[in-house]
């Protein structure tokens, strides 16, 4: 849910371990009519210990040099020693804040080794967080939109009509509260903004670390500017050539697989309500979800755990094995008549605070960016075909992804044309990391991105569970990535870490 700047030499002040060198802009490759953005001076100000923040201007419309300027919020964490350069990072989403990540939790970006010698740059893409941002609903309206139910049988004609009306109203609110910016928060435009950031921080080539959706953003940049690619690491790689409907099928299949992995390991948790009989556990989960469709569970907060809150709360801990104990507790709560655990997890996923406010615009930005990157469909024959496939690959969760994609069918702006070629031909080797048990960006996508889509991609496999891996506890992955950022060298072959 970022910014930097260039032109004249500018001394930066700070209170870190050494005096930072002045930023010397590099406006190489500025498109005709847009040089002022590539040559702006970044007014970096201290915003924490060894942290420097600035707002960077970019054009709202990259097809019109005279269009209104918008702001990209940017922060960099100064290296602990004399820096080798800058690495731009994106945590995913779309809609997650790279600005907040680096400003508030810099110790969780990459590894100690990386932070020792590199300036780490976080930013909020257009539409996100502290940048010129998308605005849609009030807090109470978000509660109804995210947690509410239609009152009709799930999947019935009335339910589908009510859901379509809700998403249409959501889109109209986004247009009303955001204005023209809503039509320009696509990934291609965000990738072009990244080239302004490259210029502002004085880099001839951009170094980049992107997680999940960040891998798609990075692939898009590399496809648009292959000659300006430095060292790129894409963790949780997404294959941009896969259709939206197929992306959904692959993802829900991977989440179903992750749920099975949880059941296979659940007995290690003290309050696990399941036996080691996985099919029985799957049946129990299916029955619980079916009951929630018509009978929400009470919670200690006075709010109800609806089926949609439960699904969100179930999905959230499948992103990482470290959350599985919370998933175990939440199932135990639910089987005992309390929705507290799942509601807490759903609120975490949606960035909802205890007081009912939402701390970020994650949901709004996710919809807005996603709908511009891929338009929805109103073809019910196509929807029904996708629904059948969803139920086939994910008997438990597929029911709750039916009609996925229709939420963009009434978006007020058309999808933006994507690059026709994502090969990034001419760019140096791009590292792609895939986790075999990744539920959100399935391993098959990282594999195809590295081996089939990119002209020069290198696959690094982690044989394990969870969504993305670099910067965590897997030393094998950390060593490979750190070595690549420091030397540009790759292993002789996929290290197949575990």
Describe this structure as you would to a colleague.
With 498 residues, the chain is an alpha/beta fold. Among the domains are: 205-238 and 420-498, Alpha/Beta hydrolase fold, catalytic domain (Rossmann fold, 3-Layer(aba) Sandwich), CATH 3.40.50.1820; 244-350, no CATH class. Helix content is 39%, strand content 13%. It has 16 helices and 11 strands. It has a 9-stranded mixed beta sheet, with helices on both faces. It has a two-stranded antiparallel sheet with strand order 8-9. A hairpin with a 2-residue loop joins strand 1 (45-48) and strand 2. Helix 9 (278-294) packs antiparallel against helix 10 (307-315) and helix 11 crosses helix 12. The longest helix is centred in the middle third of the chain and has 22 residues, at 157-178. It is globular and about 60 Å long.
């Amino acid at each position: 849910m970022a910014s930097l700047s260039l032109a004249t030499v500018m001394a930066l002040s700070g209170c870190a371990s050494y005096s930072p060198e002045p930023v010397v802009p590099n406006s190489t490759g500025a498109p005709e009519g847009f040089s002022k953005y590539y040559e702006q001076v970044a007014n970096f100000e201290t915003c924490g210990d060894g942290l420097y923040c600035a707002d960077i201007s970019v054009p709202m419309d990259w097809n019109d040099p005279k269009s209104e300027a918008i702001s990209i919020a940017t922060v960099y964490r100064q290296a602990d020693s004399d820096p080798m350069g800058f690495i731009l990072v994106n945590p995913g989403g779309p809609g997650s804040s790279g600005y907040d990540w680096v400003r508030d939790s810099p110790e969780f970006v990459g590894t100690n080794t990386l932070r020792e010698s590199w300036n780490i740059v976080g930013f909020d893409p257009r539409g996100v967080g502290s940048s010129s941002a998308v605005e849609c609903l009030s807090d109470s309206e978000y509660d109804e939109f995210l947690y509410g139910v239609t009152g009709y049988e799930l999947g019935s004609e009335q339910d589908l009509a009510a859901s379509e009306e809700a998403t249409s109203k959501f889109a109209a609110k986004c247009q009303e509260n955001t204005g023209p910016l809503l039509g320009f928060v696509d990934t291609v435009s965000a990738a072009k903004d990244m080239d302004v950031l490259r210029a502002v921080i004085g880099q001839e080539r951009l170094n980049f670390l992107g997680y999940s959706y960040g891998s798609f953003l990075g692939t898009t940049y590399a496809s648009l500017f292959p000659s300006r690619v430095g060292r790129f690491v894409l963790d949780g790689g997404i294959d941009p050539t896969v259709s939206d409907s197929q992306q959904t099928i692959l993802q829900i299949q991977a989440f179903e697989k992750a749920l099975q992995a949880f059941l296979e390991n659940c007995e290690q948790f003290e309050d696990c309500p399941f036996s080691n009989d996985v099919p029985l556990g799957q049946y129990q989960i299916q029955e619980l979800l079916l009951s929630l469709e018509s009978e929400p569970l009470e919670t200690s907060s006075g709010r109800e755990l609806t089926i949609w809150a439960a699904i969100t709360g179930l999905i959230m801990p499948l992103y990482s094995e470290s959350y599985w104990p919370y998933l175990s507790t939440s199932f135990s709560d639910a089987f005992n008549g309390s929705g507290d655990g799942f509601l807490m997890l759903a609120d975490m996923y949606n960035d909802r605070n205890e007081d009912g406010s939402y701390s970020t615009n994650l949901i709004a930005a996710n919809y807005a960016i996603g709908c511009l990157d891929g338009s929805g469909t109103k073809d019910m024959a196509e929807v029904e075909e996708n629904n059948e496939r969803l139920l086939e690959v994910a008997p438990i969760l597929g029911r709750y992804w039916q009609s996925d994609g229709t939420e963009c069918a009434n978006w007020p702006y058309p999808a933006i044309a994507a690059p026709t070629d994502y090969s990034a031909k001419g760019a140096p080797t791009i590292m792609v990391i895939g986790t075999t048990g990744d539920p959100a960006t399935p391993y098959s996508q990282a594999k195809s991105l590295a081996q089939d889509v990119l002209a020069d991609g290198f696959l690094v496999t982690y044989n394990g569970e969870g969504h993305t891996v670099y910067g965590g506890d897997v030393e094998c992955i950390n060593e490979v990535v750190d070595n690549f950022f420091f030397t540009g060298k790759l292993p002789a072959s996929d290290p197949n870490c575990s």
